[in-house]
């Protein structure tokens, strides 16, 4: 099978996990939705485990691990957002953890939710809505509208167009990298013994997956930082 055929097969694979024989599949539930909820359940249980029985004094090792994880993640996003964007730090931590965890499910033979364009599009739209809301909160509606005409009125159409380009860029960058890694892994599985794909899986499912989560959060944080300056 050539690359074009493989890509077509991947994109057109049956994405439905739960089928309801009603209204021509209108209520079907896709794999990405089920896996997304699975990721959220696992993360929730993990957080509840780490944060149970927390104390102010004589803290347990479990609480210490939880506090270290939170401080490290907050430190990462604070470095991206700066002082002005501090209020959005925890949201960006949540996005970073969710995308990172979603990309790691490939280690268990599951298709990452970010392989679905609907998921990456939703994440991108949420990010851009937050960016513009941050700008409006900081500047007010009038100054926010006027900012599109800076540094001169002639560039206003380009600045407005950027509102559409930014979410599209975030969406396609994340989706493109995930699908690219999936295609490479499928080609390796067909061409070489299983040991080699297993080794490359460590890179694509762990390192590359976490890097893509970081890049998505970094760009969103950069946009927020620009909006609140």
Written description of the protein model:
With 229 residues, the protein is mainly alpha-helical. The chain has one domain (3-228). It contains 7 helices and 2 strands, in the order H-E-E-H-H-H-H-H-H. A two-stranded antiparallel ribbon has the order 1-2.
Structural key phrases:
single chain; mainly alpha
Question: End-to-end distance, in Å?
Answer: 51 Å
Give the amount of beta strand, in percent.
under 5%
Poorly predicted residue ranges: none
Q: How many distinct helices?
A: 7
**Rg, nearest Å:** 21 Å
Largest sheet: 2 strands, antiparallel
Mean pLDDT: 81
> Strand order of the main beta sheet, please?
1-2
Overall strand count: 2
Count of distinct structural domains: 1
Protein structure class: mainly alpha
Q: Identify the overall geometry.
A: globular
The amount of helix comes to over 70%
Order of helices and strands: HEEHHHHHH
Give a brief outline of the structure.
Helices cover 73% and strands 2% of the residues. The chain contains 7 helices and 2 strands.
């Amino acid at each position: 099978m050539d690359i074009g055929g493989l890509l077509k097969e991947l994109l057109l694979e049956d994405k439905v996990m739960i089928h309801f024989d009603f209204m021509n599949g209108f209520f079907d539930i896709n794999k990405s939705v089920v896996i997304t909820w699975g990721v959220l359940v696992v993360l929730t249980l993990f957080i509840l485990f780490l944060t149970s029985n927390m104390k102010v004094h004589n803290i347990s090792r479990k609480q210490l691990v939880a506090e270290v994880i939170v401080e490290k993640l907050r430190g990462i996003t604070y470095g991206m957002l700066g002082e002005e964007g501090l209020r959005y730090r925890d949201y960006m931590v949540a996005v970073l953890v969710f995308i990172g965890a979603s990309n790691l499910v490939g280690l268990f033979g599951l298709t990452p939710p970010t392989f679905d364009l609907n998921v990456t599009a939703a994440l991108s739209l949420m990010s851009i809505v937050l960016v513009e809301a941050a700008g409006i909160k900081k500047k007010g509606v009038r100054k926010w509208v006027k900012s599109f005409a800076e540094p001169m009125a002639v560039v206003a159409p380009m600045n407005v167009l950027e509102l559409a380009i930014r979410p599209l860029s975030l969406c396609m960058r994340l989706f493109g990298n995930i699908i690219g890694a999936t295609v490479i892994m499928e080609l390796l599985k067909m061409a070489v013994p299983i040991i080699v794909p297993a080794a490359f899986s460590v890179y694509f499912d762990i390192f590359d997956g976490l890097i893509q989560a970081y890049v998505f959060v970094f760009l969103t944080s950069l946009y927020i930082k620009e909006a609140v300056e």
